[in-house]
């Protein structure tokens, strides 16, 4: 490995660990401090933390790779994500922040149990299990990205990349909790922002300008700038449906629960949406300019998902390249850390504290949270050992699982006061089961899963919505007792 490249990575890793240590020293030594930073996080950190933990390695590897292959026809995912993120900030965030403060909820399962006065504890158990299952898949996608990065960029074994990526994240998350995750996400979001501007701009400059780059792209792929090339209406719906997933992503909406106040959310939305727009355009540009650069320089590229790595190594001095490649690590690590924290919170507070040892002191719950972080990371590494795993495929499966099981339920719990506990349980189970059947059951054309024809979040989201409405109406006699906190939230928002 080039010594300049190694130096850049060493600086990056040291900075992440230093932030984790700082958070450990300054954080409130309580469960609330560890899981939500004491609800004192500012709008800028909230916005970039939500963005960085949202986008993960697929933004710098999966999305550019898709653009490299298909051109602008792959950009529909970005359109759907922009719309979904804006709706999430505008409609979900204020109500969720207010409601979780009214009920003093620290986790999503905690919020759902409080919202529906669930004395049976079924909502907490089911939601915690859903989080653990889908985050194991989601976290593994980030670890796969780390393995691919170390193998293709640093010429190190894929397996070693898995352990380095997960190991650094585990260390700073283990000690610093939510504050460390948010602060590192902020720095990582800045790195991603700069990298996704620099790489396509320098590539275009090297190719002779925008018009020359466009000409080369069209020579390689005449339909590269055609938004609907080879894309059916169902495919466009499937891509844009990614935006539906935002309402149910625990590692994103937990940011809204931790912000210092509802009024700060408007500032966070402006920062977050601006960051997202620029980085998505940058990611799409990397794929297109990479296509032109590979053709013009007659380079070989075996894996389209590594186009950002190739451009970083080819266009820049190794020291600068090291920081650009750190952007991929930043995207990967920011997502992994958020997912590890949310999963550990479900294991420690929603399962262990509530069902195994209700009298456990806070320091013991924190210890279980930290052990859980380590165990979930180990499971993700195990899943990631399948080196043929597609980053975008793993992310899409987990995104759909959360979007369908939690998305409709979060919306109904915040906006429809007649939602009942039975309706909530039915919706969550229906959404999760529909997604799993759609992904794994060979009942489509030629025994292929139905997900090859329509993205699983669409039927999952619709089925969960129908289940919530039908079951809630059938059990509406039990909804009156659930409206007290709902009314308190409405008054506080007004």
UniProtKB/TrEMBL annotation:
Membrane topology (UniProt): Multi-pass membrane protein
NCBIfam families per UniProt: Na_Pro_sym, sss
Q: What does this protein do?
A: Catalyzes the sodium-dependent uptake of extracellular L-proline.
Assigned GO CC terms: plasma membrane
Localization per Swiss-Prot or TrEMBL: Cell inner membrane; Cell membrane
Q: Which family does it belong to?
A: Belongs to the sodium:solute symporter (SSF) (TC 2.A.21) family.
Where does the chain cross the membrane? 6-24, 67-87, 122-140, 160-179, 186-207, 227-247, 275-295, 315-336, 365-385, 391-415, 422-441, 453-471
Q: Which branch of life, at top level?
A: Bacteria
Catalysed reactions, as listed in the record: L-proline(in) + Na(+)(in) = L-proline(out) + Na(+)(out)
Q: Could you tell me the keywords of this UniProt record?
A: Amino-acid transport, Cell inner membrane, Cell membrane, Ion transport, Membrane, Sodium, Sodium transport, Symport, Transmembrane, Transmembrane helix, Transport
Q: What protein is this chain from? A: Sodium/proline symporter
Q: For this UniProt entry, what is the primary localization, expressed as one broad class?
A: membrane
Q: Which GO terms describe its biological process?
A: proline transport
Under the heading PROSITE patterns, the entry gives:
NA_SOLUT_SYMP_3 (PS50283)
Query: Gene name, please?
Result: opuE_1
Carries keyword Transport?
yes
Enumerate the InterPro entries for this protein.
Na/Glc_symporter_sf, Na/Pro_symporter, Na/solute_symporter, Sodium:Solute_Symporter
Specify the species. Planctobacterium marinum
The UniProt GO MF terms for this protein read: L-proline transmembrane transporter activity; proline:sodium symporter activity; sodium ion binding
């Amino acid at each position: 490995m080039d010594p300049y490249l190694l130096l850049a990575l060493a600086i990056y890793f040291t900075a992440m660990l230093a932030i984790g240590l700082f958070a450990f020293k300054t954080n409130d030594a309580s469960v609330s401090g560890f899981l939500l930073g004491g609800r004192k996080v500012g709008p800028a950190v909230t916005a970039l933390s939500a963005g960085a933990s949202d986008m993960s390695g697929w933004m710098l590897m999966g999305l550019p790779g898709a653009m490299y292959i298909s051109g602008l026809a792959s950009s529909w995912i970005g359109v759907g994500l922009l719309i979904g993120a804006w709706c999430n900030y505008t409609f979900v965030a204020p109500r969720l922040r207010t409601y979780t403060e009214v009920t003093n909820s620290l986790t999503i399962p905690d919020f759902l149990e409080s919202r529906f006065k669930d004395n049976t504890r079924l909502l907490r158990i089911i939601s915690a299990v859903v989080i653990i299952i889908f985050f194991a898949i989601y976290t593994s996608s980030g670890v796969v990205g780390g393995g691919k990065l170390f193998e293709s960029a640093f010429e190190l074994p894929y397996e070693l990349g898995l352990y380095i990526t997960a190991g650094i994240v585990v260390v700073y998350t283990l000690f610093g909790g939510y504050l460390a995750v948010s602060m590192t996400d902020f720095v990582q979001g800045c790195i991603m922002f700069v990298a996704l501007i620099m790489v396509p701009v320098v590539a275009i400059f090297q190719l002779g300008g925008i018009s020359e780059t466009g000409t080369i792209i069209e020579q390689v792929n005449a339909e590269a700038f055609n938004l609907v090339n080879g894309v059916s209406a169902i495919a466009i719906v499937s891509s844009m449906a990614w935006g539906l997933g935002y309402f149910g992503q625990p590692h994103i909406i937990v940011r809204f629960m931790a912000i210092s106040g509802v009024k700060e959310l408007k500032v966070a939305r402006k920062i977050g949406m601006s960051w997202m727009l620029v980085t998505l355009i940058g990611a799409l540009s990397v794929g297109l300019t990479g296509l032109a650069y590979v053709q013009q320089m007659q380079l070989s590229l075996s894996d389209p998902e590594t186009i950002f790595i190739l451009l970083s190594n080819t266009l820049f001095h190794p020291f600068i390249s090291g920081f650009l490649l750190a952007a991929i690590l930043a995207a990967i690590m920011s997502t992994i850390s958020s997912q590890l924290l949310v999963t550990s919170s479900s294991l420690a507070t929603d399962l262990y504290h509530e069902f195994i040892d209700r009298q456990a002191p806070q320091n013991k719950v924190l210890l279980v949270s930290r052990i859980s972080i380590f165990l979930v990371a180990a499971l993700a590494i195990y899943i990631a050992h399948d080196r043929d795993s597609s980053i975008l495929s793993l992310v899409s499966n987990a995104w759909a699982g959360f979007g369908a099981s939690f998305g409709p339920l979060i919306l109904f719990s915040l906006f429809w006061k007649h939602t009942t506990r039975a309706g909530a349980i039915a919706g969550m189970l229906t959404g999760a089961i529909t997604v799993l059947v759609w992904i794994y059951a060979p009942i489509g054309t030629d025994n292929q899963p139905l997900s090859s024809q329509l993205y699983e979040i669409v039927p999952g989201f619709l089925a969960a919505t129908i289940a919530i409405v039908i079951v809630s109406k059938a059990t509406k006699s039990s909804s009156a007792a659930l409206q007290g906190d709902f009314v308190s939230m409405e008054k506080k928002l007004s």
